[in-house]
Amino acid sequence: MKSLDAFMYGPKDLRLEEVQVPELKSTQILVKVHASGICGSDVECYLGHSKEGRYDLGPYTPGHEWCGEVVAVGSDVISLKVGDRVTGECANSCNRCDICKEGINNSYCTNWNEVGFMPSAPGGMGEYLVGEEQFCYKIPDNMTYVEGALVEPCSVAYYSIYGRDGYVARTDDCVIFGAGAIGLFAATICKAAGAKVIVVEPIAFRRKMAEEVVGVDVTIDPFEEDVEKVVLEHTEGKGASFVVECTGSDAGVSMTVDVARPHARIRFIGHSIGRKIPIEIGKAIWKGLNLQGSAGQPWFFTKTIKFMGRVKDEIDFTRFITSYYPLEKIQDAFDRAIEHKDEAVKVMVLANEEKDRLEEYRNR
C-alpha cells in the first residue's frame, strides 16, 4: 500500500512523496491519519533554526500532533483494534536504559525516538502513520479528529502543571507568559481549576483569544504596560503564586522571578535551547522560589484526554485552530504558520476523508 507523505529534507526543503507503507512489527499499529497540527517546533526546524529536526540523518516526516483511525494492528497488539480512533505521544522511549528503568520522563530516554523529528519515527503529516501500541491512545466518541490532534500540545501544558507532584488550585494567582497554543492550554487548565489567570502576551490577536475563548481574568501587553506593576495590582500586592513560562524568550524567562511572590512555583516550558538567558537569580533565592523545567508529557495522554472531554462543553478547543489546509497544500500551511505567525495560533493539516470537511472547518 502507498502513502502520500511529507518529508523534511533540510531547511525550507519540504517535499510530498508517495512511499510504500512499511510492514508492521508485532507491537505496532497502522493509522490512517486525518489531522495533524503544525507546532512551533516544526516551523523552527523548517527554517533551520532548530537542531531538533534530524534531517542530518536523512529526510523525515514531520507531525507530532496527529490523530487518525486504526486500520491494521500487529499480532501482539492487545489494547487497540481496527476502527479505534487514536492519537499518540511524541517521545517514544526504549524502556530499557537507566533513565527509563528509573521511571524518569521519557523525553530524557537515551535511546528515544521522537515522532515527527527523526527518519526512524515518521510523524503524522502524511496519509498513514505507523505507531507503537504503547504510545498510542484511544480518543472518546465525542472528540473529533482535529480535537484529537490537539491532545499532544494540551498534554505538554497539562504535564507542566500537574506532573512531578505539581498542582494548581482555586486559591492560586497564575501568570502565563505567552498565548500561543501551549500558553492557551495552560491558561485553560488553570481556569478550569478555578484559579485567577493573568496572561502576558504582546500580540493583540492572541490576547483577545485568551480573553474570549479561554476567559482569562487579565491580559497584559508587555510592550505597553509594566508587567510587574499590573500583576501586583491584580494580586493584592503579593505577586503570582504560580507562573508558567511558555515563550522561551529572554524577556519572558527573566520576568518570571519578578512577578512571583515568595515561595511561588515557576514552570518553564518554552524552548530556549542553545542560548543563555539572563535571570536575576537572587530573587529566586531570597523569595525561595520553586523553579522547574518541563519537557514532554510522560504517560499524561490519558489524563489529558479525560480533561479535554470534561471541559468540552465549557470551551471549544477548535477555536485555537486558526487555519486548515489539505495535505496536498502542506507547503501553503507552513507558509501560513511562518508569514502570519501572529494570527497562526494553530495551523491544522487534514488528510484522507477529513479533507472533505475542509470548508466546514474553515467556515466555523
Tell me the total number of β-strands. 17
Distance between the termini: 35 Å
Beta-strand portion reads: 25-35%
Count of discrete alpha- or pi-helical segments spanning 4 or more residues: 12
In terms of structural class, how would the helical and strand content be classed? alpha/beta
Q: What's the CATH H-level homologous superfamily of the largest domain?
A: Medium-chain alcohol dehydrogenases, catalytic domain
- Uncertain stretches of 5 or more adjacent residues: none
CATH class of the largest domain: Alpha Beta
Helical content class: 25-40%
Plain-language structure description:
This protein is an alpha/beta fold and about 375 residues long. The chain has two domains: about 190 residues, Alpha-Beta Complex (Quinone Oxidoreductase, Chain A, domain 1), CATH 3.90.180; about 140 residues, 3-Layer(aba) Sandwich (Rossmann fold), CATH 3.40.50.720. It is built from twelve helices and 17 strands. The strands form four sheets. Strands 3, 4, 5, 8, 9, 16 and 17 form a seven-stranded mixed sheet that branches. Strands 12-11-10-13-14-15 form a six-stranded parallel sheet, sandwiched between helices. Strands 1-2 form a two-stranded antiparallel sheet. Helix 6 links the parallel strand 11 and strand 12. Helix 4 crosses helix 5. The protein is globular, with a radius of gyration of 20 Å. The relative contact order is 0.15.
